[in-house]
Amino acid sequence: MQNKRVNLEVQPGEPVGMVAAQSLGEPGTQMVLGTFHFAGIASYAAIATSGLPRIIELLDAKKAPSSPLMRIMLKESYAKSFPKAEETAKRISEIRLRDIMRRMVENFAKGRILVILNQQAMQIAELTPGQVSAKLAKQLGVEARVGEHGNVILHTHIKNLKEVRAIAVRAAKTLINGIEGAGRAMVSQDEKTGEFYIDATGNGIDAVLDVEGVDPTRVYTNDAFAAYRVFGIEAARNVLASEVAKTLKDQDITVSDRHITLVADAMTASGTIKSIGRHGLVGSKESVFAKAAFEETVKHLINAAAFGQSDYMRGVTENILIGKQIPLGTGVVKLTIKNTQEHAKGRKEKE
Questions:
Q1: Other C-beta atoms within 10 Å of 36: how many?
Q2: Are the C-beta atoms of residues 198 and 188 closer than 8 Å to each other?
Q3: Residue 107 phi, psi (nearest 5)
């Protein structure tokens, strides 16, 4: 263990940032430029964004990932019972009116909207027309009742075409059951442990934690901003690192964990999530030359001249730019040469 610890140590002056950039950048050129759909795999994770698009999404710190996912682990009594796990999934699964209806028929002359429900979808969601009617009346503030053939009729008491149409659009988006932002949820089973868990296609992790049967200590999301909002910056850092590592592993690319965590640390060191680019890490650098060397060269130099900014040349980029020795490797060491003649002369004077 002692030898292993010594081997893991980084020597003073080691260009860790440069090595990490090379370690991630080079294999990134070999990644597939697409999003996979693995046919035959009954899992939401099979349709998640992968490859280079996912890496770009993570490093650009996009606030809305294209494929948000949650893995919701359950408490012991629920994890061992499929009926209980399925019941929990139904409480979580986000169902809107558009998911359980066939179409809407708008009567602008009478200010009425007929919602023709999909009976099969209603049975799967275990909802009744009465429940849908009550939810629409409460959310939209209109009169709602169950009509013939189990359909719902909305009485808006408005005969303005534009306003009736606006109510119809709002009605289609109305949350009928489940948790806002949780997406569709389904039950899966771990092959090794045999326990049941829930996969959901959303990022409403804060509300999920309060659902009965959910183990709040084992809920995971691939959305770093959702983790930051609920659990804090350390959790966001861990999500960034684990998601980058997972994406690379899926492409059969091996990168040292130290390089990946260094990138995640750099993105979250300020206490917020910053992207890698001119609006994030590069844009927040103190050095004028470092920012100018990346993008918008003229803008940075003109602003520096106009406002009298100083550059103390402490970083790598700015020193390379002007041909000075960089403060890495042997450039870290500062040598002082002792003048022996002056030293001897000083000794004689003292004597």
A1: 13
A2: yes
A3: -110, 95
Helix (H, G, I), strand (E, B) or coil at 344: helix
The domain spans of the chain are 95-177
Taking the C-alpha atoms of residue 85 and residue 77, their distance in angstroms, rounded to an integer, is 9
| CB-count exposure of residue 154 (10 Å: 0-12, 13-18, 19+) | buried
What's the mean pLDDT in 281-299? Answer: 83
Which two structure tokens, joined as six digits, stand for 262? 């260094």
**77 with 293: CB under 8 angstroms?**
no
The secondary structure element, H or E, covering residue 215 is strand 214-221
Q: Residues 53, 35: contact at Cβ < 8 Å?
A: yes
Contact (CB, 8 A) for 278 and 284: no
The pair phi, psi for residue 128, each rounded to 5°, is -115, 155
For position 42, what pLDDT does the model report?
46
Residue 202 confidence class, pLDDT cut points 50, 70, 90:
confident
The residue with tokens 């370690």 is 23
Rounded mean pLDDT of 5-9? 65
What confidence score (pLDDT) does residue 2 get?
Answer: 67
H runs (alpha helix) in the chain:
2-8, 16-28, 51-59, 76-79, 82-92, 97-100, 119-125, 129-140, 161-173, 205-208, 224-231, 233-250, 257-268, 288-294, 297-307, 316-322, 340-350
* % of the chain exceeding 90 in pLDDT: 15
Q: Is the pTM of this model over 0.70?
A: yes
For domain 95-177, say whether CATH 3.40.50.300 is its number: no
**Paired tokens of 311:** 């550059």
If residue 112 lies in a helix (H) or strand (E), which one and from where to where?
strand 112-117
Rounded CA separation 343/59 (Å):
56
Tell me the two tokens of residue 123. 């049975």
The CA distance from 145 to 133, in Å, is: 6
Q: Do residues 68 and 203 lie in contact, with contact meaning Cβ atoms separated by under 8 Å?
A: yes
Separation of alpha carbons 129 and 119, rounded Å: 9
Q: How far is 304 from 188, CA to CA, in rounded Å?
A: 57
Which tokens in the block code for residue 193?
Answer: 């442990």
State residue 39's pLDDT score. 39
